[in-house]
Amino acid sequence: KLHGRHVLALARKRSEPTLPGRLGLTVTKKVGNAVVRNRIKRMLREWLRLHGWVPAGWDLVLVAKDSAARQLHPDDFAPDLTRILRQL
In whole angstroms, what is the distance from residue 28 CA to residue 37 CA? Predict the structure, then answer.
């Protein structure tokens, strides 16, 4: 479990390290309405697409915190996500 400013990451090493990494995104209703929740998920996916996906052999679930609703660009998640991916 890794805490960031805008996301909480739950990571688990898979039993077969050669399988591709999997990603789950969770944004609860307390973060905002459907438009806001979908925008957050799109931004997280876009940042991961551009800067490296989940490493092979890992399952990663990203849970957006309330502060994620105020982010306007995928790079606003960069400090959290780079630290999370580096620690995997």
Answer: 8
